[in-house]
Amino acid sequence: MNSTFYEFKYLIKMKYFKKIITLAVFLLTICVLTSCSKPESKDQDEYLIRIGQRVVTVLDFNKAFEIAEAAFPHNVLQDSSVLKEAKKRLLNQMTEEMVLLERAKELGVSILESEVDKNIAEIKSDYPEGVFEDLLLEYAVSYESWKKGLKTRMLIEKLIEKELSSQVVITADDISRYYEENYKASNFKSDSANRPKDLNEKIVKYLRRKKIEEIYKSWIEKIHKRFHIEINEKQWKRILSS
To answer: CATH no. for residue 20?
Structure first.
């Protein structure tokens, strides 16, 4: 094949780089969480996070951070303060996701295979042919592990929707106010009867997401208090200093 083909493939990969890195970080973090081992199967000195029967080891954390590093610009993590902050952020993220999985288990929230298959089709449609498969190969993630991780992510999203949707109310005034603030330059009038249906739906979807984000913090704080979270301080200090 000539160099033009490889240049084209490179440009495609660069175009999707941010999306690929974001997905890759999510992939490994979730894959680690879904394969969490039971406490009795691990050397107690090696656990890093433990919530109930769910455990993340130092090795699990290091694997996840290895992938997370790719999301940072070159040499940024050479700054020790930035490196520590990145590790703290990942620890908090993994702990939060473990708490959410425990809460989903508590409420009996589940995901059907048909829901997973539909989501997979939608995700793959966002990538040019072959790019998505290349992503899995590059990060040495098997398709089954990725699918398992995706199902877990969907489970977390379903839990959040179940717990918070009833607290979110979008009024006609909310829609009109958002429209006035963001679509003044358009030719549509502010009343809903003169706006395209798809625009109204887009605004409602955005406002719902924003309101859920606003109440998420207080909700997750309450969920955290429901579970006993153990952090291995000895191992965590070693990780921060390495």
So the answer is: 1.10.4030.10
- Helix then strand then coil, % of the chain, to nearest 5: 75, 5, 20
The pair of structure tokens assigned to 7 is 């240049």
pLDDT at 237: 94
Which pLDDT belongs to residue 193? 53
How far apart are alpha carbons 199 and 175 in whole angstroms? 10
Q: Do 46 and 26 form a contact (C-beta atoms < 8 A)?
A: no
Q: How far apart are CA 35 and CA 134, in angstroms?
A: 23
Q: Which residues of the chain have pLDDT under 50?
A: 1-18, 20-21, 37, 39-44
In DSSP terms, 57 is beta-bridged to: 47
189: left (phi over 0), alpha (psi -120 to 50) or beta: beta
| Count of C-beta atoms within a 10 Å radius of residue 65 | 20
- The pLDDT of residue 43 is 47
Residue-level pLDDT at 222:
93
Of 42, 41, 33, 150, nearest to 99 by C-alpha is 33
> How much is the pTM?
0.73
Provide the domain limits for residue 29.
Answer: 3-162+227-241
Assess if residue 93 is contained within a domain: yes
